[in-house]
Design brief:
Elements: E1 8-10, H1 22-32, H2 37-55, E2 59-60, E3 80-86, E4 90-100, E5 105-110, E6 113-116, E7 123-128, E8 131-135, E9 145-151, E10 155-159, E11 162-165, E12 181-184, E13 188-192, E14 198-200, H3 205-210, H4 216-226, H5 233-245
Antiparallel strand pairs: 1-4, 2-6, 3-4, 3-7, 4-5, 5-6, 7-8, 8-9, 9-10, 10-13, 11-12, 13-14
């Protein structure tokens, strides 16, 4: 089993020593202090459990795939300390990560090796660069992770999009060939209703309003009154928050 070099803790328990010598040290303490066996044994078990979740099926990344491709498919250029929260409340903190938008995979660094995080059902969300990345592995039309922008009776997410453009040879002697490259597209904004309906939102106010026929006129009136531009993310969040309040 790999040793986990990053801090782990539970919302219900004290911080666990993140350093790899904790296991042998804890064993010595267990032998020396029988009265504390259960508490310390639980702490070791928690670390082992998180290690098993994190590293099972994690696979090394083949950089040859991207070596000759211009541009980057990542949300953040550098690996940034992130926090993984599991559905049972446990945390892994300060794990260097980045999101590969094109592959729809989280990448992390362990023991100087870059690995790809498997699609683990126990993950609730990942906090990376002050954004909450929520997994959508089980929804084929989405996949990967989306950034949560608003959560209520309805929820708003941002889906980043990167497309791969294949290399193109020169058509004539006067043209240069075009290398393969990654092309960052405009972000998509997706709303998910209480019933689980997925709506890919339009930034056009008329088209947006028609996506909610029961409130079409009310939406247009609110947009006009507030001077909203749905192409601006803050304005879109304001509109979704208002729309959510009408359901109460």
């Amino acid at each position: 089993m790999r040793s986990n070099l990053y801090s782990t803790r539970s919302r219900k328990s004290a911080r666990i020593n993140p350093f790899p010598f904790i296991a042998p040290l804890a064993i010595l303490l267990l032998l020396a202090c029988p009265a504390d066996n259960k508490a310390q044994g639980d702490e070791i078990h928690e670390m082992d459990h998180i290690n098993q979740i994190l590293f099972r099926e994690a696979s090394p990344i083949n950089f040859l795939e991207y070596e000759y491709i211009e541009g980057k498919p990542y949300s953040n250029k550098e690996l940034t300390p992130a926090t993984i929260e599991f559905i049972d409340g446990r945390l892994i903190e300060n794990l260097p990560m980045r999101y590969n938008i094109y592959a729809k995979k989280m990448e992390f660094k362990q023991d100087e090796q870059l690995l790809e995080l498997a699609e683990i059902k126990e993950i609730k969300h990942i906090i990376l660069e002050n954004n909450k990345y929520v997994p959508f592995f089980r929804i084929p039309s989405i996949g990967g992770y989306m950034i949560e922008l608003y959560s209520g009776n309805i929820s708003l997410f941002k889906q980043s999009v990167v497309e791969f453009v294949d290399a193109k040879p020169a058509k004539t002697g006067y043209e240069d060939p075009k290398p393969a490259h990654f092309d960052r597209k405009d972000d998509a904004h997706i709303l998910i209703t209480e019933e689980g309906e997925i709506i890919r939102l339009s930034s056009n106010k008329s088209h947006f309003a028609r996506q909610f026929p029961d409130n079409e006129e009310r939406i247009l009136s609110y947009i006009k009154k507030q001077g909203l531009k749905l192409g601006r993310e803050d304005d879109l969040i304001s509109m979704v928050r208002e729309l959510d309040s009408w359901k109460e």
